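Protein 1 of 2
SEQ + STRUCT:
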Amino acid sequence: MSRSARDVAAGVGVVFAGVFDQLSAWRAPIEHLIATSPEVRPAELDGTVADLVLPRLVEPDPLLVGAGFIADGEIVRGRDVHFAWWLGPLDANPVLGSTTEPTRLDLTTRGYTEYLRDFRALEWYAIPASTRHAHVTGPYVDHLCTCDYILTLTMPVHAGGAGDAVGDARMVGVVGADVSVRGLERELLAELLDVPEPLALVNEAGRVVVSTEPTLQVGQLAGAWQEAEACPGTPFRVLVAPTTGRAASGSN
């Protein structure tokens, strides 16, 4: 029996719920470390984060291509901003070449990092800071690490281990993970192709994440496709191709 757009939407929700659950599991020990010291040593923070994220980055066919914790600087001794972030093994990456082991993100070796001086204004940080909830940014081309389309999932980290609770808890950073669009497509493609009609998974702005219609590319606006189903717990929707004529090609 073939699947429906609703089945696909539910499957997308399950995939992202798994990543959000992982972020929540990582957040707890990071908040505990912060709660035990008003000023965390960089090496101690890095060791804690590395122990948490590295196992997920070396899984067979990993969904996550990068993960870690980005601190706002107030809690890390001697740092205005601190990236405890690792990349998984990369295949023919334009920046790093091919790598077989996870690598630490080193901003000193990257060009075009000036925008990170005001990282608190970037979507992946600003939205969790204002809503106190997890957020998905993208799809966008990650020029800093992978040079490919990714989705960045981030969740606020608070001093005192307050999690998402409102009140006096102070946000001190975000725990996050990068999901490659290629990896997500690999995860979802069988379900997408099991639906008779062409489908497109789009973000809130209607930009394509994954599609089974060859004329629709990642990042493109889906145009006049019919909205079908919201994906639970995510900002995404599954659209179905119009029943007559071909889908509007949209514009960038």
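Protein 2 of 2
SEQ + STRUCT:
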Amino acid sequence: MPERFRAPGRVNLIGGQVDYHEGWVVSMAIDHDIVVTAQPRTDGRVTARSSDTDLAADGAVDIAADGSDDARSVAPKWGRGVAGVVRALADLGRAPVGAGLEITSTLPIGAGLSSSAAFSVAVALAMNDAAEFELSQLDLALAAQQAEHIATGVPCGTQDPLSSVFGVAGHALLIDCRTLEIEPLPLPPELRVLVVHSGVPRTLEATPYAQRRAESIDVGTRLGLRALRDASFAQVRNEPRGRHAVTEMARVREFGAALRGGDTAALGALMLASHASSRDDMEVSTPELDALVECLVHAGALGARLTGAGFGGCVVALVPAAQAERIELAATAAYRKHTNREPTAWIVQAARGAGRL
């Protein structure tokens, strides 16, 4: 009997480019996800098909269930994510039980909503079930992170898989990326989370993400620190990459305190400061993302910022619930006129984490 598993994408409300500094982020799982329908196979093979039009056109995946295939050589290219999961789980002791996977998605690819982490988590859940292999929630998230490293070579952090696995309906998650402690924080009922795709797609492999990360980590190395989490502002005052990390972590802690205290007025200003720092000090924004933030604020958003790693994809905004649809329409119309790009918008809800359907 086929079994079905889902893993949600996530939107990073604040805390950009700091998870790999063992910092803090505020993230939330969203009500758009990857669903994997799985059935065990007895031939030691893992096959996967996708109903996504673009992926389906590339063909099906067929790899060894023992993780012996070189993930980065797998064709079609989207199958490398499956191979990365299979290898990561094999390294943890999963038996080489085959499975047939059917994959569907309501998550846009290349939008900065963590479709790749959700993909890895959902596939891992399905593969573990087929082999009756149990992992804790934390180990599942870490396995999904390792799978992405194996599949793409992109040194992604822990935020995305942790958000997908530990999501709580109606709540944001304050994640400590050093201790991996997670604090669910209720979202104010008078606010909505609006996500708008800039119309500029991106894959991290094709962006300077790894370079920005290396430059940022180098600041901490030169200071003799384990991570920039341990740096003071004085130490990084003249280092733009380090300055972003230290000030962003401070903003995240303030954002968490504002959510705990119901101080909605503080949230928007913190998001705008985060975007400015991502643009100026970290240099991961684009003219389109900057324009989209401006259009959203002009339309009435409390605040907005790029979400994900930047270089394209989405902007996230907090908007008054009663005006959410009006702001969405006004901001996207203004952005379309200003850039000749076609935006796509979603009012998203905070969703529960990954699991069996």
